[in-house]
């Protein structure tokens, strides 16, 4: 049985062991604190440092003595991040309320002035017998991690930017356009607003590339992008849609007039000369405009509408603007329907030619015919070439249409020869695709020889716009080869392009067909008279044959005869007719009465 002394001794031993254990625990804790890789702080409620470990000194550059009694923000916060009195008061309140954020990452500065990212973990500890709690802070230098994350973020952002932007102009590309337009339409729908689109195409851009090189073309694209950005708002999107096409998205617009004003300013500025080396580049632009409404809340539909309006602008002379209407939509639907049925029409022999005579006013004789392609549509009747040639070009059937027209023209020439008119000449149009085929001239020569025809009785009409838009060696070689083979080459629709004189000088052209646009205002308009007379005189000086198209009235014919443009073509002479009717017309018509006062009314309205 233990005595009281024994029990006392045992208690003393136990207390001694506990004290020794406590000493060991303190030593262990102190050792851990001193060798920890993270910085450790103990602060009072006023954020003054009471204790710090060596790791904190290594991170910050300040010794324990320099830190003791100081607030970290006084030493480590850069001037631009200094805490205001309000922030300090809020910090104290958060501590007192127990709502201090447990982890925070701040940008600090070391004693040597070097910036670093500091991850701070906080804990508020209540001490028995202490009125105020203590703040335990763990500090970790996460600079490498943050910089690595920021580098990855920048790389991702740069990759995203490259994926959504055009390298040359820096403009958003089609991907960015699609997402931006979708968002704009969704917001507009929610707010009952409207979104406008300007679909911009640079006129004759291909010629710049072909004649001056791609560096000049790139300079033009960058210039055009800057012009468009100048005339748009901060919340608009100017994007490069592809090639020489741009699409501008204008959210929150209030109707077509606003968009048309912007388009006019862009067209005006893009007409200004662009300096390049020692020369100026001059080009124009065409703009199709569409506006979202109940029928066009989808981005694909809105872009399709702007493209349809742009197509009509380019089809009507370019360098202008046009806003989408339902009528344009009907034209597009009609064109789409024709495109779908064209292949079937070719297979079923629905395409053929009609002939329109060319008449010499001075000799009162027919000099030949032009073969015009027509589509005998089962539902819509006889369709002129203008209604389906573009469709054929877009779906890759233009060469087939050309071949049909060529066969029809050559067969018609044979029929006219056999009917007793061997002197007549046949004119036929050729597309750029056909003209640029390397075997085109050889094929034509072979077909002419097989029929026993003379090349001098065949004239190949080349649109002036073909020469402008296909200014390459293939076109020039084909024209030269045609001339050398004995075929006549004529420049069709002369006067509608802007570089006609240059083409006359550099190519082996035998004649020109003056476009009806230059004829229709004569002789009433004095300016038209002067222009037409100058063109005829120029052609005569260059020893070129002249045929005036679109002659409908006696006065037009008489004026042309007086200035030396005696060969004419148009409704005033005769409308296009079938081969059978052409033979009958040649045999039965008194040529002395063609386009004279005695038969003017009947011939012009027949």
UniProtKB/TrEMBL annotation:
Coiled-coil region(s): 5-32
Q: Does the keyword Coiled coil apply?
A: yes
Signal sequence bounds = none
**Pfam families in alphabetical order:** EAL, GGDEF, PAS_9
* One GO MF term attached to the UniProt entry: catalytic activity
Please list the residue ranges annotated as the GGDEF domain. 193-326
Q: Which UniProt keywords apply?
A: Coiled coil
Q: Where is the EAL domain?
A: 335-590
Q: Which SMART domains match?
A: EAL, GGDEF, PAC, PAS
Q: Where is the PAS domain?
A: 25-81
Where do the PAC domain residues begin and end? 99-154
Q: Which PANTHER family match?
A: BIOFILM ARCHITECTURE MAINTENANCE PROTEIN MBAA, DIGUANYLATE CYCLASE DGCP
Q: Which NCBIfam families match?
A: GGDEF (TIGR00254), sensory_box (TIGR00229)
Q: What is this protein called?
A: Putative diguanylate cyclase YeaP
Instruction: Please tell me the species this chain comes from.
Output: Maritalea myrionectae
Organism classification: Bacteria, Pseudomonadati, Pseudomonadota, Alphaproteobacteria, Hyphomicrobiales
């Amino acid at each position: 049985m233990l005595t009281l002394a024994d029990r006392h001794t045992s208690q003393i031993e136990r207390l001694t062991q506990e004290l020794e254990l406590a000493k060991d625990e303190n030593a262990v804790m102190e050792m851990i604190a001193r060798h920890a890789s993270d910085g450790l702080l103990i602060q009072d409620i006023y954020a003054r440092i009471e204790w710090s470990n060596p790791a904190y000194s290594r991170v910050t550059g300040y010794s324990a003595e320099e830190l003791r009694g100081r607030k970290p923000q006084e030493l480590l916060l850069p001037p631009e991040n200094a805490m205001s009195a309000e922030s300090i008061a809020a910090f104290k309140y958060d501590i007192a309320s127990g709502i201090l954020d447990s982890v925070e990452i701040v940008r600090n500065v070391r004693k040597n002035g070097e910036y670093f990212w500091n991850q701070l973990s906080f804990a508020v500890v209540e001490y028995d017998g202490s009125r105020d709690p203590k703040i335990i802070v763990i500090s970790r230098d996460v600079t490498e991690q943050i910089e690595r994350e920021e580098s990855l973020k920048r790389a991702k952002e740069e990759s995203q930017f490259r994926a959504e932007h055009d390298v040359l102009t820096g403009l958003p590309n089609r991907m960015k356009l699609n997402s931006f337009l979708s968002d704009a339409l969704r917001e507009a729908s929610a707010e009952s607003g409207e979104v406008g689109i300007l679909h911009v195409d640079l006129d004759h851009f291909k010629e710049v590339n072909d004649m001056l090189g791609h560096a000049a073309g790139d300079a033009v694209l960058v210039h055009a992008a800057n012009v468009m950005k100048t005339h748009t708002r901060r919340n608009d999107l100017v994007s490069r849609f592809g090639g020489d096409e741009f699409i501008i998205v204008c959210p929150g617009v209030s109707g077509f007039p606003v968009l048309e004003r912007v388009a006019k300013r862009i067209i005006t500025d893009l007409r200004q000369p662009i300096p390049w080396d020692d020369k100026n580049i001059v080009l124009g632009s065409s703009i199709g405009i569409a506006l979202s409404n109940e029928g066009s809340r989808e981005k694909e539909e809105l872009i399709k509408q702007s493209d349809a309006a742009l197509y009509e602008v380019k089809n009507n002379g370019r360098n202008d603007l046009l806003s989408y209407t339902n009528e344009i939509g009907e034209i597009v639907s009609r064109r789409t329907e024709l495109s779908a049925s064209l292949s079937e029409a070719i297979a079923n022999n629905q395409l053929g030619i009609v002939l329109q005579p060319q008449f010499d006013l001075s000799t009162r004789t027919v000099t030949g015919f032009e073969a015009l392609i027509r589509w005998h549509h089962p539902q819509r009747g006889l369709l002129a070439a203008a209604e389906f040639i573009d469709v054929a070009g877009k779906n890759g059937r233009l060469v087939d249409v050309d071949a049909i027209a060529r066969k029809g023209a050559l067969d018609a020439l044979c029929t006219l020869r056999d009917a007793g008119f061997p002197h007549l000449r046949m004119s036929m149009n050729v597309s750029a695709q056909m003209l640029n085929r390397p075997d085109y001239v050889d094929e034509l020569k072979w077909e002419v020889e097989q029929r026993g025809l003379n090349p001098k009785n065949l004239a190949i009409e080349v649109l002036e716009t073909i020469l402008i838009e296909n200014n390459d060696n293939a076109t020039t070689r084909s024209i030269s080869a045609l001339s050398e083979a004995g075929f006549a080459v004529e420049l069709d629709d002369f006067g509608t392009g802007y570089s006609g004189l240059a083409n006359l000088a550099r190519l082996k052209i035998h004649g020109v067909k003056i476009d009806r646009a230059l004829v229709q205002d004569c002789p009433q308009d004095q300016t038209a008279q002067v222009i037409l007379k100058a063109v005829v005189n120029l052609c005569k000086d260059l020893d070129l044959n002249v045929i005036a198209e679109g002659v409908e009235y006696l006065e037009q014919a008489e004026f042309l005869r007086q200035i030396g443009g005696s060969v004419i073509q148009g409704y005033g002479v005769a409308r296009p007719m079938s081969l059978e009717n052409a033979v009958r017309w040649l045999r039965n018509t008194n040529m002395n009465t063609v386009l004279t006062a005695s038969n003017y009314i009947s011939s012009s309205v027949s």
